[in-house]
Design goal:
Elements: E1 9-16, H1 24-40, H2 44-49, H3 56-63, H4 65-82, E2 85-92, E3 99-106, E4 112-121, E5 124-132
Parallel strand pairs: 1-4
Antiparallel strand pairs: 1-3, 2-3, 4-5
Helix pairs in contact: 3-4
């Protein structure tokens, strides 16, 4: 499950794919503290709940017992290695009206990069997809 290394991100480019729930930055600012809290509590179930029901990661987690265990193990390993998230700061990318960068500071380790797409769900915005270094990790 090397593709889960997206969790180690310095810059997360976020593409917001639906206008259904208002201002994108405000929606991003709502989901990031939830993500940080779930990460810091090492609550993989809550992290998965922040993923859209149609996301590949959440579908695998909810429908495939062996994938669920592999996903859980990868998250737990990465959380132990990188430690708590101390700070998450969103910034708008210049010249791109729908993309944001997120600066993430971990307690123990340096950071990496990933791209994230959010999608609207019936109750608000959720994470749809992570792209780790163009799928190379």
């Amino acid at each position: 499950m090397n593709s889960l290394r997206w969790l180690l991100s310095l810059t997360v480019g976020i593409a917001l794919v639906s206008p259904a729930f208002g201002d994108e930055k405000a929606e991003l600012e709502k989901i990031l503290p939830k993500w940080q809290e779930a990460w810091n509590k090492k609550d993989v179930g809550k992290l998965m709940a922040l993923h859209h029901p149609n996301s590949r990661l959440r579908k695998a987690y909810e429908t495939n017992p062996s994938a669920k265990e592999a996903i859980r193990a990868e998250f737990e390993s990465t959380m132990a290695e990188y430690g708590e998230i101390q700070k998450v700061t969103p910034r708008k990318n210049p010249g791109d009206g729908q993309k944001y960068s997120v600066q993430i500071t971990y307690r123990k380790k340096a950071n990496a990069s990933a791209a994230v797409a959010l999608a609207a769900d019936k109750d608000g915005w959720l994470i749809m997809e992570f792209d780790i270094d163009g799928g190379q990790k």
